[in-house]
Amino acid sequence: MAMAEPSRTQMTDGLGRRISYLRISVTDRCDLRCRYCMAEKMQFLPKNQVLTLEEIALLADLFVARGINKIRLTGGEPLVRRDIGDLVRRIGRHLGNGLDELTLTTNGTRLINHADMLADAGVRRINVSLDSLDPARFAHITRGGDIQAVFGGLKAAQAAGLAIKINMVALKGVNDGEILPMLRWCDAEGLDLTLIETMPLGETGEDRTDHYLPLSQVADDIRAHYALTPVSDRTGGPARYHSVAGMTARLGLITPLTNNFCADCNRIRMTCEGKIFMCLGHEDHVDFKTALREGGLPAVEPLIDRALRLKPARHDFRIGAGETAPATRRHMSVTGG
Ligand code: SAM
Ligand code: SF4
């Protein structure tokens, strides 16, 4: 495949926002079926519709040349993709040479086998999703997951020297009683915690309205026990962080419903099919896969500018108040959380 000589201009969208952060969904497949994320009988894409690892790597090269300085690999579950280590190592070669950070979001079930590979490739921080510390509740939320595999993965990641942030989706009537215990556990284990509001993405066979829990309310409940002080440093993602009085764990809040931070959004997302979505909450996208397969990287580069023009001012998520349909038909696992 012909290599392009990409220009090194930075990417700025139509509203003047500098785009520097790319999330790549490396697969739509997963070994869990979290109730808020997927349907129980999820239909996954046929393999030939999914980008090869080489195609993902070529597109990552192009984006780094165009000013992306942070890449997060996600999915689906990125660690179920065969030979994922080849891709991590390949993208990791850009670290210190255009790329400042390579990170990963994982459910942790296969981390035990990959933690050393991630650290060797230059990954320094990972997010691990864990919505409950209770084995039975974890199995319920994930429709059958084994929490011991995640605990084993966390230990392996710590032994490999990776900094870990736990992602916990706050679910009313499911894990709301576990938020304070989770914060205390994270602090004791040397982990940070980010709480996430459930977003209306894709059909799951369940009603999200029932379990939607505004984090403004959760933060007030936490403040009754611990003073929270906003901290200014950002990781480039959508979370806003707080220090917690008496703890070393930091608390992040991702509040797309109660308080969106679209005005300074710096992110774009590439699906495992090579579609570039400029916003998690909109259907507009540009298809890089067809261009790449038909014309190589020179055919793809002009599409970046088309994609930049598509970035909307904000998403428009709503839950409750008569809203029953998801904001997009796409699941988070396709676009990449
Ligand atoms: N499988 C990996 C994992 O679970 O960490 C990576 C992909 S997952 C789609 C990324 C993140 O999105 C996870 O923290 C998950 O909890 C979150 N997520 C998935 N669906 C969501 C939804 N509808 N609303 C809010 N967060 C969601
Ligand atoms: Fe899989 Fe992650 Fe979605 Fe859970 S949240 S079903 S682990 S992709």
UniProtKB/TrEMBL annotation:
Its EC number is 4.1.99.22. Pathway: Cofactor biosynthesis; molybdopterin biosynthesis. The keyword Mitochondrion does not apply. One of its GO terms (biological process) is Mo-molybdopterin cofactor biosynthetic process. Binds 2 [4Fe-4S] clusters. Binds 1 [4Fe-4S] cluster coordinated with 3 cysteines and an exchangeable S-adenosyl-L-methionine and 1 [4Fe-4S] cluster coordinated with 3 cysteines and the GTP-derived substrate. [4Fe-4S] cluster 1 binds at C30, C34, C37. InterPro entries: Aldolase_TIM (IPR013785), Elp3/MiaA/NifB-like_rSAM (IPR006638), MoaA (IPR013483), MoaA-like (IPR040064), MoaA_NifB_PqqE_Fe-S-bd_CS (IPR000385), MoaA_twitch (IPR010505), MoCo_biosynth_MoaA/MoaC (IPR050105), rSAM (IPR007197). Residues 14-238 form the Radical SAM core domain. GO terms for molecular function: 4 iron, 4 sulfur cluster binding; cyclic pyranopterin monophosphate synthase activity; GTP 3',8'-cyclase activity; GTP binding; metal ion binding; S-adenosyl-L-methionine binding. [4Fe-4S] cluster 2 binds at C262, C265, C279. Gene3D superfamilies: Aldolase class I. PROSITE patterns: MOAA_NIFB_PQQE, RADICAL_SAM. It catalyses: GTP + AH2 + S-adenosyl-L-methionine = (8S)-3',8-cyclo-7,8-dihydroguanosine 5'-triphosphate + 5'-deoxyadenosine + L-methionine + A + H(+). It comes from the Bacteria. Keywords: 4Fe-4S, GTP-binding, Iron, Iron-sulfur, Lyase, Metal-binding, Molybdenum cofactor biosynthesis, Nucleotide-binding, S-adenosyl-L-methionine. Its cofactor is [4Fe-4S] cluster. S-adenosyl-L-methionine binds at Y36, G76, S129, M199. Catalyzes the cyclization of GTP to (8S)-3',8-cyclo-7,8-dihydroguanosine 5'-triphosphate. Monomer and homodimer. Belongs to the radical SAM superfamily. MoaA family. This is GTP 3',8-cyclase. It comes from Sphingobium terrigena. The gene is moaA.
